[in-house]
Amino acid sequence: MHINDLPVEILGEIFEAATLKGYLTPNKFVLLVFALRPGFAPFNLIHVCRLWRDVAFSLLSLWTHLNGVQHEPLQPRIPAMTYWLECSQDAALHFRLSAWEDSRGTPFDAQHSRRMLRVFSKHVHRWRSLSIDVGDDLLDDLSVVLQEAAVPPPLEGLEIEFEHEDIAAFKVDKLASLLHNLDSLTRVHWVNPQGCTLPDLPWRQLKMISIKTLFEPEEVLECLAQCVSATSVSIIGWQDPAHALTLPELPHITLETLTSLTLNKSSDPLPMLSCFTLPSLEYLEVGVYKRDFDALERFVKRSKCPLKTLIVIDTTFQSDDIADFFAFEHLKAIPNVKLGPAHFEPEMLKLMKLLEASGARNLPPLVVWKEWHSNWPFFVGWKESGRLGARYIFENGKVTRTR
Fold first, then answer.
1. Looking at the record's lineage, which domain of life comes first (predicted)?
2. Hey, how many other C-beta atoms are within 10 angstroms of the C-beta on 155?
């Protein structure tokens, strides 16, 4: 059988597979074509024969996930991107721009991303997902595009990282205020190393929120209380808080839809949990600034949530603290419990003896393991994957070193 005898649907699947796409940022924000090059799909497909040309042009998904980042000198070229946009017809667009150097350290043409944004601005009515790294100039340009659009773009997702330079706070605030005009916006990833407060985002409409910046703990409480539509919230600070969280007199807050919550110790999250009930929560990761495990236990009991994963990060843990943590009854029903960073052999042996003395025999077998993708070297707890990668196992009052 000749390849052209295949049903058009199967040929289309082959074309999709030939067009190399991937996640270009750690957030796995949106799949994008790696590079716009004439010798690669989908450009090379349209030159084989009329059938292939017709099939390629009919598959708008080949032409709507665009990478405008300069990955080598003069690439991607403006004419190639303009042609690609024409091929996408009127379909929704997903694209990425960056004002920074590439992964090999090759400096970008300082004006390349600004020129590319001007090309995309002609199609602002089709913007669906935007991933962008901005310096001062590109931030100004983006704000102008959003402000001057005849109709607010139907943007559903925004991933933005601000360059490690002093960008005036009023410019950042201006962009955040413009996002309130985007009624379709539901996903925001926001990274601002130089920021000093949480951005004024349209919190109530957002479903997925990921923030990395500087802030006061009280700001997190105020913003989290507004996340009434969110399913996933991650708010990470760059440093320890200047003070412990001061709990204001607020009515108790229930967030019905939230299934995933990540707060590092910058927000002093354990006391904050006393303000919330999260009945749908499945994933909770918290860093410890002011240790209050009683608040954590009350939160889990009150929420009656289907918690599947609990991760607690406390860099000041000692063996007796870990033993106290695993004495809590509410942990037994959670399939994945991770406490970190775990200590090395002398401390772990002391921990196991403390657990044995405390009578903690009804817990699942405790495992100490390493996760290479994590910031922390070792965790202690249990996981659904069992003993995979275990360094130590504590079971039936005995500790075993596995490697």
1. Eukaryota
2. 23
Supply the pLDDT for residue 219: 93
Read off φ and ψ for residue 233, nearest 5 degrees: -135, 130
Which tokens hold the place of 223? 């913003």
How far is CA 14 from each of CA 7, 20, 140, 208, 401, rounded to the nearest angstrom? 11, 11, 41, 32, 49
Handedness of CA 357, 360, 365, 368 (dihedral sign): negative
What tokens appear for 162 in the block? 């601000």
Q: Break the chain into its structural domains and give their ranges.
A: 1-213, 308-402
Considering all CA atoms of the chain, what is the largest pairwise distance in Å, rounded to the nearest integer?
77
Token pair, residue 132, equals: 């962008």
Task: State the pLDDT at residue 69.
Answer: 80
Pairing of strands 390-395, 366-369: antiparallel
Instruction: State which residues of the chain have pLDDT below 50.
Output: 103-105
Give residue 103's pLDDT.
45
pLDDT on residue 359: 58
- Which neighbouring-strand residues pair with 311? 285, 338
> At residue 312, what is the residue type?
V
* Two tokens, residue 251: 């009515």
The pLDDT value recorded for residue 189 is 96
Cα–Cα distance for residue pair 280/323, rounded to 1 Å: 28
Whole-angstrom Cα distance, residue 310 to residue 84?
Answer: 45
CATH level 3 topology of 1-213: 3.80.10
Tracing tokens 């957030």 back to the chain, one arrives at 27
Q: Residue 104: its pLDDT value, please?
A: 45
